[in-house]
Amino acid sequence: MTYELPKLPYSYDALEPNIDAKTMEIHHTKHHQTYVTKLKEALEVLKITEADIEKLITTHRDKPAVRNHGGGHYNHSLFWEILQPKGSSEPSGSLMKQIAVDFGDFDSFKEKFASAAATRFGSGWAWLVVKNGKLAILSTPNQDNPLMDGHGVPILGIDVWEHAYYLNYQNRRPDYINAFWNVVNWDVVSEKYEACS
After folding, report:
1. What's the CA gap between 172 and 149, in Å, rounded?
2. Omega before 174 within 30 of 0, i.e. cis
3. CATH number of the structural domain 93-196
């Protein structure tokens, strides 16, 4: 079983001014690292040797340490992957077509996704998921994610825990959500969509 903090494919300051370097560094090296460390400790105590993170968080979702720390590791790993400096403005191809089918148009999708993120009470995530070939927007508390409870495969997620944005945006979560769109790597999101289709 090897759960490790993933290396970022960009520097901590690469997403500025949308996400500042200090937030990225703390978020990655402190928060995500803690989820990895605590997950390893929990699995040792629980005597769980499952190596696949997706299988781990679905099979053992009833165990709080796996749900919290395994979820934290999975969620953050996806989050880093779907970000990039100077993100693409919108998806293309089959993902864009499915967004039009399921949400009307890209602007309507962004509005619904932003609303799910902004209205998540307390800490949690907003997600774009694929289930049965359709797209849906969901929000989950804490480090839960839709995969855990069979609500779909996440292909895009935004962390709305305060540690993800507070140094730069303080209590202005909607400003952080608006800035998020500037650093989304739609190529990666589209690849994830294609893998689910």
Report:
1. 30
2. no
3. 3.55.40.20
Residue 187 structure tokens: 């190529």
Please tell me the CATH code under which domain 21-81 is placed: 1.10.287.990
State pLDDT tens for residues 4-44.
999 999 999 999 999 999 999 999 999 999 999 999 999 99
- In a 13 Å sphere around the CA of 107, the CA atoms on its Cβ side amount to 0
Distance in angstroms (rounded) separating the CA atoms of residues 2 and 80 = 19
| Rounded distance between C-alpha atoms, residue 112 and residue 53, angstroms | 29
pTM for the predicted model, two decimal places: 0.95
CA distance 69 to 10: 24
Distance from C-alpha of 18 to C-alpha of 183, rounded to nearest angstrom: 7
What are 48-93's pLDDT values in tens digits?
A: 987 899 999 999 999 999 999 999 999 999 999 999 998 788 998 9
Cβ atoms of 63 and 50 closer than 8 Å = no
Share of the chain above pLDDT 90, in %: 94
Q: Report d(CA 94, CA 48) in Å as an integer.
A: 39
Q: For the chain, how many residues are written?
A: 197
